[in-house]
Every structure is written in structure tokens, then in C-alpha cells.
User: What shape does this take?
Amino acid sequence: MMNQSTDRFTFEMTENPYSFYEEIRSISPVYKGSFWKYPGWFVTGYQEALTILKDHRFQTRIPLPETTKKYEALKDIQNRMMLFRNPPDHGRLRKLVSHKFTPAKIEKCRPFIEKIAIDLWNSLKNKRKIDVISDFAYPFASLVIAKIIGIPDEDKDIFRGWALNLIQSIDFTRSRRSIVDGNLTTLEMLTFFKDLIIKRSHSPQDDLISELLHQEDKKLTEEELLATAVLLLIAGHETTVNLISNSLYCLLKNPKEYHKLIENPSLIESAIEECLRYESPTQMIARIASEDVELNNVQIRKGDHVYVLIGAANRDPKQFSNGDDFEITRNPNPHLAFGSGIHFCLGSALARLEAQIAIQTLIQNEGKIELESKEVEWRNLVGFRAMKEMYVHLNH
Ligand code: HEM
Assistant: This one.
């Protein structure tokens, strides 16, 4: 597989990344190589992945060259996002919003999230066939994050294009064209959020933007506020859409597990954890070594790039027995789908709750939902696991 042309390799990789992961893991769980013209250490072992994510010597960095002048808006906004900041800035930016995303705060959102799911389902349930992604998961996740951030409902349809462009611009498979598109999208989002900030500074509402704008002492600069809003919007909706569709796909492809959940709905939490492990929406986390580090008998040099392949770590046979089997009662299930260490996903409680509610809503007609085709097409991405579309029949 590794000797094929890049296009063929990318195609096979997006269809089934797991055999590639296994192939390089069998050589070394910390494999030195170069894929899609990105040289670095490709980490497929669970313990090694965990060690790297928790070790401050492996730092985060923006996906564009720091020096680029061509894609200034995209580079500048990435530079101000907590996701791409290191301590001490990282902690300051994260602390300003983290209290909004604790499990207890998110639980309070349950009633409105359930209402969004039910209203959407009621608008679809008489159809014979739907695309779970564009008809349900996108509008659902968009409405939820829009309400939390403070974006009017009627604007939600514009984020899909934004999210698709920004995700493509940070993936290994990106072309120059996708970076240009990412830069244009950033400019559009900045105009949108600047306008929203003006509105919310005059008439605050019960939402995150109003809260951040009206803090007693100004803790965020306007640029940081804009970057935080863009990060939350993209991170908070694109991966959640993929979690919902990947989860339904895993369940429908594994009828025994699906029926277990129908018979025992209290398994929903552990079922979603298994979906997170089995088809992790984020497949790769990039780091750079800030000093020389010895790990697993390999010498990682200062400045080396390290790519943690989460989807591989989550099936490492040293950590998960029968890791290629989908088992909704798996316990314990310490997957790394939300990362680990200081950048552990801020929105994990929200993503979990949204996925649990979405799946419960979609399967409530007791097994009468069927995949149109067992084979689906995956998007041309290697850092994310996302289907292009997912058609199901609703049998009434
Ligand atoms: C299934 C859904 C989701 C998945 C799989 C996911 C995955 C991840 C992962 C792997 C990271 C770590 C990145 C790194 O270490 O470099 C991360 C960070 C982050 N996620 Fe999520 N995420 C999801 C949903 C959300 C939601 C709903 C939100 C927003 C409300 C969100 C906001 C963030 C933020 C702000 C960070 C950066 C945290 C930091 O740098 O301290 N995510 N996410």
C-alpha cells in the first residue's frame, strides 16, 4: 500500500485507514515516514499516543507556515485560537470559556437540544428516504452550537460551506486551492462575527458572545474573541455532525449491537463511547517537538513533527481486545477520540449529549431505519473521518 501513488493511497486510506495503521504499527508504534509529503513521526500505539499528548515538550502549532504572507487571514486567526496556542496563553484563553462547557452546564441544555432533535425529526419522519448528514445531523448540530454561541437561527445554513472549507484547509490532503478557499472563508466569517459583536454589544442576549463582551475587565482582545467564536463554531459543529452520522452507520452495520440498544436504551452512553472509539471523527492530532525527546527507543529531535493517529491508537490491540469489533457494551473504553492533556476537547460533554440525543431520536421508530447501501463514500480527508452523504430508508 505504501508504494502506491499519492492519489491511490489517499483513496484507499479514506476508504479504510485501519489497514494502513496496522501496517505501520507492525513496523513501529512510532513510525518515521513521510505521507502526503509531510515527513514526521506517525504514532499508532495507544500508550505512545497518550504519552505524547500529555507531554508538554510536544507542542501544538498552526497548520500553515508561520511565515506565509499569502493566506494572512487564515494564518492570523489560527494563531489566536486556543487549539493552536501553548502555555501560558493557552490556559488563559481556555479558562475564559471552559466554565460554559462543563458536563453540569451542558446538561442544562438538554431540553432545548431535545426539542431541536424532535422538531427536525417531525419534519422528516414522513419521508421514505433521507440523507442523515444534510437532512438531520448538519441542521441539528448547527442549531445547537448557534444557540450556545448566539448566532441567529436564520444564519445557520451558511456555516456548512464555511466548515467544509476550513476543515479541508487544515487536512493533509489540502491543495493550494483549498487554502485559498480557507482564507476567503475566514474573511467572510470575520465580517459576519464583527457585525454580530456590534449587535450584541448594544443589545446583549443570553449567549456566549454577549457574556464574553460584557465581562467586567476586558480579558479577551477583539481579535481573540473573533478567533474563539470561529473555533467554537467550526469545532463545535463539523466533528459533531460526523460523530452522529458515523455512530448511526456503525449501529446499522452491526445489527446485533443495534438491537441490543433498541432493547436496552440505557446503553446509549456506552454505545456512543464505542462509536467514538470505533470511527473517531478526528483521526489525527499534530504536534512539534520543542526539544529532543527519547520515546520507545526512538530519538525524536527538536523541531520534528509528530502525528498522533487517534483512530489507530483507538484500535491498538495492546490496549483494546478485539479492537476491530464494534461492541456497545465495551467497558472500560478509554478511547482518545477527544484527545488528552491540556488540549482535551473542550466540547466533549456537548458532543456526547448531542450524539446521544440524535441517535435516540433517529432510532426511536424501533429498527425501521435501514442503510440504503452498506458501502458509503468517505470524504477526501485523512485527519478526519467523515462521510460525503449517508442515505437511509425510513420504513413506515
Ligand atoms: C464528536 C465531536 C468532537 C470531537 C471528536 C472533537 C475532538 C477534539 C480533539 C481530538 C481535540 C484535541 C485537539 C488537539 O489536542 O490538538 C479537540 C479540541 C477542541 N475541541 Fe473538540 N471535538 C468535538 C466536538 C467539539 C465541540 C462540540 C466543541 C465546542 C463546543 C469542541 C471544541 C473544541 C475546542 C475549543 C478544542 C480546543 C481545546 C484546547 O485547545 O484547549 N469540540 N476536540
In short: The two ends are 44 Å apart (CA to CA). The first helix runs from residue 6 to 15.
